[in-house]
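Archive transcription. Copying these from loose printouts into the bound notebook so they stop getting lost. Printout 1 of 2:
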Amino acid sequence: MKIGFVFSGQGAQYLGMGKEFYENSDTFKNRIDQASDILGVDLAHIMFEEEEKLNLTEYTQPIILAISVAISEMVKSKLAFKPSVCAGLSLGEYTALVESGSLSFEKAVALVNKRGKLMQEAVPAGVGAMTAVMGAERDVVEKACLEASKVSGVYPANYNMPGQIVIGGFKEGVEEATKLLKEAGVKRLIPLKVSGPFHTPLLEEASIKLNLLLKEVSFEEMSIPVITNVTGKEISSQADIIDTLTKQVMSPVYFEDCIKTMIDSGVELIIEIGPGKTLSSFIKKIDKTMTTKHVEDTKTMEKLIAFFQKDEGGL
């Protein structure tokens, strides 16, 4: 069986996530404590006690990455297999690069902490906005954004699944696009509680500064393919990683395309690693026949183990 891993992005966090694993798994606890040492911050305390800090991008990103890496290690240890391909939603792409062996855990933790700060600082609070558009085709959303940008910049930011596209940009532009989409017959538009219009050209300054940080990092060859949000295709070589991650912060997330590429490669099971099961719900909308599992706590780990025990030899 060909298995793909997908890794959680920012927004999946919730207070208390990972607590069972932290208290019962040395593998998990060691990764969280290691990330805390790298940043000089008690991440476990934030995860379990400080919701306000947990939702600050500079902490959210390294915490979700550390949790996801730790769970991936636990899954591989308990079930003795490795994924054939991996991807992630935005931040999750950094976890995918760690999974591939291209980026060390230590460098990734420091990098996404700085990435989070840059994203947070890129657009002043209240200037930008993001809204999820439900039940509309790509061309309808893209046309509305193009027209609304005559008022103020607004862009497609996340192509998550059929029938869900997130738009982002200046607040006035998002409001204008919302009005145009309603006039076009779109009935469900959900404003998102985010700290900035991520994955839009408004993050250009963050992208430029991130590029300088990325140039200081040594990336190794990938031992397994990583599918990038920027194109929905595999990152073609080690040399392309810096350029891809530079673009990623201000480019639309083509998550739907990433999953289609994974499926086209012959993947039969996709396991979502990290807090929440949002990506699994996206995948089911992209291809309802795809088998999906997710792991975020003891219960879901036990379910995954039971799945493989039921079909021994499936690997």
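Printout 2 of 2:
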Amino acid sequence: MKLDITTLEGGNAGSVDLNETIFGLEPRADLLARCVRWQLAKRQAGTHAVKNRSDIDRTTKKVYKQKGTGSARHGAASAPQFRGGGRAFGPQVRSHAHDLPKKVRALALKHALSSKAKDASLVVIDDVKLAEPKTKALVERFGKLGLGNALIIGGAEIETNFQRAARNIPNIDVLPVQGINVYDILRREKLVLTKSAVDALEARFK
């Protein structure tokens, strides 16, 4: 698969041959959904908690006598039925993370990349470097390239000026190539890869 390489100024910088085993797959929605669910579950805080019956500081004196009242047999005011009592089966602090095989994660990333390539939402750029960290100038360049909602993947390190200029732009995410993930790819309309990011991804899945 051949794709043109552009520059930040909108010029042409040649072309690149994309690996069909990474960018040419038929996207599978089930794999993408599994990986997104795994990512979101893993980052969920799980700090929600309530007081159950054993956590309530109330008297343990029997509410009323066992027999003869015609009412249910209660032994403590901390029971869930009473106002101020403990919560029955409420949420507790826990991890929501679950396992997903490494091979499934790798395959899902390939399918996410392929989905962007299939939708013509994949842009390859030669490099992301700026002389000055000016957000306004970068917004103008993105406007010429049609990047209003995009994930930009650079090399092993993002150039400081570019990172500073891009961090104030809404709907624009910038990540180094080692931080690429399925959820961030799918949540943005376009995926922008630098030439070094393409080389790194092809080396990773070799």
